[in-house]
Amino acid sequence: MSTLLEVSGVTVSFDGFRAINNLSFQIADAELRAVIGPNGAGKTTFMDIVTGKTRPDEGHILWGDKSISLIGMSEAKIAQAGIGRKFQKPTVFEEQTVQENLMMALRKDRAPLAVLFFKPSKTDFACVEELADQIGLADAFLRVSGELSHGQKQWLEIGMLLAQEPQLLLVDEPAAGMTPAEREKTTAILVDAAKTRAVVVVEHDMEFVRRLNCKVTVLHEGAVLAEGSLDHVTKNQDVIDVYLGR
Amino acid sequence: MNRSFIARNPSVLIFLAILALFTLGVTVLSEGFGIGLISTSFVKVLGKTLCLCLIAIAMDLIWGYTGILSLGHFAFFGLGGYMLGMWLMYERTRQIVVNSLSDGVLPPTPEEVTTGIGNQIFGVVGSSDFPLIWTFADSLVLQLAFVVLVPGILALVFGWLAFRSRVTGVYLSILTQAMTLGLSLYLFQNASGLRGNNGLSGLQNLPGITAPQSVVSLWFFWASALVLGLGYLLVAWIVSGKFGSVIRGIRDNEARVRFLGYSVETYKLAVFTLTACISGIAGALYYPQAGIINPAEVAPIASIYLAVWVAIGGRGRLYGAVIGTAFVSLVSSWFTGGQAPDVPLGFYTVKWVDWWLVLLGLCFVLVTLYAPNGIGGLIDLLKRKRKETDA
């Protein structure tokens, strides 16, 4: 497997506080990875850096086969390059239907003029319907997304990410606030998605991470503390001290 | 879903039909072409109202759909008015000067004509030289192009600077207020080349046209109705498709749109510039009906009124913007025109000329608090009621 994303020696400070401290991290094509860590470990900041929201003070972020540097690229450009992001809170466009939400996310030309004259083809409609089916929202296809339940909104957002056809999916606490049944479905969607692309899941919930059954990276104070299988990292004394022991 | 745009938006057809009926009705009742029930001055009021509805549609596009509360769109409106006003004033003055000079034994030289026009136009600001910005005032085609280009370019430059720095929300609103205030103060100066506080006048007289005002007023009324219809159609089309999805997304959650891969700044700039161009056209149609334009027209308060109209009519629905603007501006001219009867309270007499603004302000507060969807929200309510009874 080749490296899809390589983060090396990245440091970010906010008013003197080092949110990310010399972080190095790699993710391969079609890999499912869980990132865990206590509050303030820098999980969300890590996502902000990769997606272009926050610019690092030091370090390199290289992307894809051609090893393009992502530093200095706009959020929109990074998203177009193939990195999709799901926020902690479900953020869908609540006044628009499930169909409109997915159609907007569909991988198409993003330039204003192209969008203005865009007419969805039969394949586009089929594609969007298939996605709705995949995330279990086929019945709610024409409903305004603000009416959906919390869990359904989370899935819709994941569906929008899939519609973007990214090579890397960054997912921030997808299981937060979900019922056990919803969690199971979310796990299935993510594991399925990771078959064809890399998926990084930031999560608090150990049970959820166990179910993902993948390599785990433990962050602490903005750096990698341990990496390996869940059983491996939970036996690590450092991890027990900073995270699990409390 | 794959039906045509009109079929998906029945309100567009309804609006166009009402506008056509209204235009026909006014024509039939007018002095110029009909039975004379509506005075020429009232035809002008109605025509001007249609122009205000047009800029309200632009305001709804930028504020109601894209979520950018611009409080400076009357700057673009005024610029459009000035651009056409320059040609109207130049050409009419030229004809008068040429006529008066033709009485002499020798035909007037071009220099004499130019000096004559300069004296006529700029005498009030103590000058007779043509400022540089009047270079193309003799060309109707160019000045018409400027009606769109000047507001467009100002919006492009201003918007590029503001959106690129990610200025949003109330800070952007303040910046747009500063822009229109700056323009107004600049135009007030005699050195601005647009006759300072005198502004441009006599715009209701079309050069070379001998038809009476009762007829000319209807020409402008028709033109205003036509352009309003076209503008409505254009904006309704823009907001109906995926572009509309994206700008409503920007309104509701800018960051999400960005992470979907859309360049939010480019979209904002495009909408801001387009609405500025529409505003310019609306202004160019408005001021020949008003007869005069001066810098007070682009004072910050004008753009705030615009926001009030759209809010009262209902943001995010184009007919709402039109209804709110037509209603409030007509009622406003009734109250401030001295036609509204005073209310004697014994100890105090309420004079509407003074108290109308208080009433309007109160309405605005009430709408904001209790009916955030404005008058247009009532129509939504009726639609829902009917759906429920149907079901």
TrEMBL record, chain A:
InterPro entries, per database record: ABC_AA/LPS_Transport (IPR051120), ABC_transporter-like_ATP-bd (IPR003439), ABC_transptr_urea_ATP-bd_UrtD (IPR017781), P-loop_NTPase (IPR027417)
Superkingdom per UniProt: Bacteria
Residue ranges constituting the ABC transporter domain according to the UniProt record: 5-246
CDD domains: ABC_Mj1267_LivG_branched (cd03219)
SUPFAM superfamilies, sorted: P-loop containing nucleoside triphosphate hydrolases
Molecular function terms from GO: ATP binding
Keywords: ATP-binding, Nucleotide-binding, Transport
Protein's name according to its UniProt entry: Urea ABC transporter ATP-binding protein UrtD
Species per Swiss-Prot/TrEMBL record: Pseudohalocynthiibacter aestuariivivens
TrEMBL record, chain B:
Origin superkingdom: Bacteria
Keywords: Cell membrane, Membrane, Transmembrane, Transmembrane helix
Protein's UniProt name: Urea ABC transporter permease subunit UrtC
Subcellular location(s) per record: Cell membrane
Main location: membrane
Transmembrane intervals: 12-39, 71-90, 140-163, 170-188, 219-239, 266-286, 292-311, 318-335, 355-379
Presence of keyword Glycosyltransferase: no
Matching InterPro entries: ABC_transp_permease (IPR001851), ABC_transptr_urea_perm_UrtC (IPR017778), LivM-like (IPR043428)
PANTHER family noted in UniProt: HIGH-AFFINITY BRANCHED-CHAIN AMINO ACID TRANSPORT SYSTEM PERMEASE, SLR1201 PROTEIN
Membrane topology designation: Multi-pass membrane protein
